[in-house]
Amino acid sequence: MDFSTITSDLLSGFLENLKLFGLTLAFSLPLGLLLSFCSMSKIPPIRWLAKTFVWIIRGTPLMLQLFIVFFVPGIVFDAPLKTRFTAALIAFVINYSAYFSEIYRGGIESIPVGQHEAGMVLGMTRKQIFFKVVLMQVVKKIIPPMSNEIITLVKDTSLARVIAVAEIIMVADRFTARGMIWPLFYTGVFFLLFNGILTLLFGAIEKKLDYYKV
Amino acid sequence: MKKILAVLLVAALLLSFAACSSKKTEETTKAEETTAAAESDLAYIQGKGEMVIGITIFEPMDYYDDNKELTGFEADFAKAVCEKLGVKAKFQEISWEAKETELSGKSIDCIWNGLTITPERQETMSISSPYMNNKQVIVTKKENVQSFAKPGALDGKTVVAEKESAGEEIVADEQYADFFGKATYVAVQDMKSALMEVKAGTADAAVIDYVTYLGTLGVNSDYKDLAFVDKSFADEQYGVAFRQGSDVTAKVNEIIEQFLTDGTLKQIATKYNLVQQLVVK
Q1: What is the number of structural domains in chain A?
Q2: CA-closest candidate to residue A34, choices A132, A101, A115
Q3: Residue in chain B lying closest to A78 (CA)
Q4: Rounded distance, CA A175 to CA A6, Å?
Q5: Where exactly are the structural domains of chain B?
Q6: Domain with A89 in it
Q7: Which residues contact B171 (CB under 8 A, 6 or more apart)?
Q8: pLDDT above 70 covers what percent of chain B?
Q9: A166 at the B interface (CB within 8 A)?
Q10: The domain that contains A143 carries what CATH number?
Q11: Could you tell me which residues come within 8 angstroms of residue B264 by beta carbon, excluding any fewer than 6 positions away?
Q12: What is the pLDDT of residues B266-280, one digit of tens each?
């Protein structure tokens, strides 16, 4: 068990984290937008439903949600889920859509009503106002809170081990069981490096959008 | 009340899953399969042709060898039993604290991983006859080994054990009050954490499985400065856990009996240096 074997073992575990991270983002970014529209809907039942959903998802631990998604089909409906990764992905997508939806809502509602009114005066449709006037301003405004949430997501993926998705910390645990402690702490380097890259990336995006002062 | 709340929460979550329709149909077909075999767990397992065995990775029971193959005493033993049952052994690493939930959720069919037989566990799961003896030992820094063997030496010290484990029961047992009665007890996540506490000095002693302790002493172990106190507590035994009311247990008991008498288990135990721990028939 030398350093390079352990590094490659941990790396294969970290790829699982990255897969979960990437897929969660791909699904929850659009879903979150949809959910934010629902929670700003003019139709009260849709609004209440969306708000209750966000309340439940943000109000309960992600770890509990992982347990519910993975175990409830088997225990209550006698139809056990076969893939742990899919269960983890479903739980993460649901959880992060709820958080993202609130960030989107904050961004959209921060655009002054005057801009909507101005658009209407100019005879633009609601769709046009949203896509041509509001959206780009929203994107710029939500980059900092989004990057915060996305970096949290990278670290949250390690929670998937509670339903035995073989992510990096679970892999490190195998070494701990043999009496080697350092691989567990070494996993931090993987997270740090990846989040370092993300931080630079978000910095660059923010800078790129900086020409556009509101 | 808790149940109603749980069901309500679940219902709310499931509503949101309705969107994932492809997933749903997959589940429905599975549900049909399982209802057909609901009466017999054995028929259910033989029907799908594989037994999903819940394990955690620890030497010498279940671990990966240099070729990344799963090996170990329990792995070999489980494979041999599955062969007799005419099914494939499929090993699934689980999180130990979720083992009962995994079992009743049918994501695994048995727990086969040095599971200590306790009355509490027998109430919630169907456990096979014992095949291996185990004991709980106090593990501490080498310099304390001598002194900690005497009652009273742990007074005011911090003792850790895995929560809900056999070690925890020993610490709470009246019988050993002269050992642990005046010690500060802290329940930790698992035996790995218990050892780490002792290594880091945040605890003075850990009460853990002897077999698990042996497994942490590999070539590159960080625990070379730890040792166990030469006083063993309440002997206990390992068994395989199946779902409550499962008819697989009786069948596996027959096979274990056979393996103990015909030397199959002895052969496997020799390979992993565990012959002394084996139940003698």
Answers
A1: 1
A2: A101
A3: B31
A4: 9
A5: 42-132+237-277, 135-235
A6: 3-211
A7: B159, B161, B180, B183, B185, B207
A8: 86
A9: yes
A10: 1.10.3720.10
A11: B80, B258
A12: 999 999 988 888 988
| Architecture of the structural domain at B135-235 | 3-Layer(aba) Sandwich (3.40)
Q: Are strands B233-243 and B132-141 parallel, antiparallel or unpaired?
A: antiparallel
Helix (H, G, I), strand (E, B) or coil at B218: coil
Kindly give, in sequence order, each residue whose CB lies less than 8 Å from that of residue B28, ignoring residues fewer than 6 positions away.
A79
Considering the entire predicted model, what is its pTM?
0.81
- pLDDT score for B22: 40
Q: Could B216 and A60 be called an inter-chain contact, meaning their C-beta atoms sit closer than 8 Å?
A: no
Interchain CB distance below 8 Å, A81 and B107? yes
Regarding the domain with residue range B42-132+237-277, which homologous superfamily does it belong to in the CATH classification?
Answer: Periplasmic binding protein-like II (3.40.190.10)
d(CA A29, CA A137): 17
Give the closest-approach CA distance of A25 to chain B in angstroms.
17
From the CA of A199, how many Å to the nearest CA of chain B? 32
pLDDT at B19: 39
User: Smallest Cα–Cα separation from A38: which of A24, A55, A51?
Assistant: A51
b/e per residue, B159-175, with b = 16+ CB within 10 A?
Answer: bbbbeebbbbbbbeeee
Contacts of A1 in chain B (CB under 8 A): 218-220
Strand, helix or coil at B188?
strand
| Token pair in block for residue B258 | 């056979």
ipTM: 0.73
Structure tokens at A211: 């020409």
Radius of gyration of chain A (CA): 21
Task: Give the per-residue pLDDT at B18.
Answer: 42
B26-47 pLDDT, tens digit each: 444 444 444 444 579 999 999 9
Query: Is pLDDT above 70 for B106?
Result: yes
The residue written with tokens 């399982």 in the block is B34
pLDDT of residue B24: 41
Same fold flag, B42-132+237-277 and B135-235: yes
Position B1 pLDDT exceeds 80: no
Does the pLDDT value for residue A19 go beyond 70? yes
- Read off the pLDDT of residues B127-170 as tens digits, 9 standing for 90 and up: 999 999 988 999 999 999 999 988 889 999 999 999 888 889 88
Helices B21-36 and B41-48, packing angle to 10 deg? 120
Output the six-digit token pair for B76.
Answer: 């070999």
